[in-house]
Amino acid sequence: MKAYNELKSAGVESSLSFDNGKLDYKANAKHDTIYIPAKDSIIYVPKYVPGETVYINRLTWWQQAQIYLCRLLAVVLLIKYLPSIWKVILKLLKRR
Q1: Using CA atoms, how far apart are residues 73 and 86, in angstroms rounded to an integer?
Q2: What is the DSSP string of 4-23?
Q3: Are 24 and 16 in contact (CB under 8 A)?
Q4: For 60-82, how does the pLDDT look when each residue is reduced to its tens digit (9 = 90+)?
Q5: SS3 state at 86
Q6: pLDDT confidence of residue 27
Q7: How far is Cα 25 from Cα 17, in angstroms, rounded to an integer?
Q8: β-pair type (22-29, 12-19)
Q9: Which of 20, 27, 44, 54 has a CB 3.0–4.6 Å from the CB of 14, allowing a cystine?
Q10: Phi and psi at residue 8, in whole multiples of 5°?
Q11: pLDDT value, residue 28
């Protein structure tokens, strides 16, 4: 036997020998890699940085006013059209 083909996973080692008319085939599983969690070697220590606090991603007064006015408009429209929406819902429920 000069060569042989076999199907096996990557974690298996095999050996084949032919001695005194006896075929000896052995398959051994390799040890799997084990990852042991370790502590982070970097220690984070908060430090005070002197200077003025800079705020980023803040809304301007105009953006805040638009949000407030849109919420107010939504409430007014909901109050105005809620009775008609309620009537439509009741009609749909009565049809069933």
Answers
A1: 19
A2: ------TTEEEEEEEETTEE
A3: yes
A4: 999 999 999 999 999 999 999 99
A5: helix
A6: 83
A7: 6
A8: antiparallel
A9: 27
A10: -155, 165
A11: 83
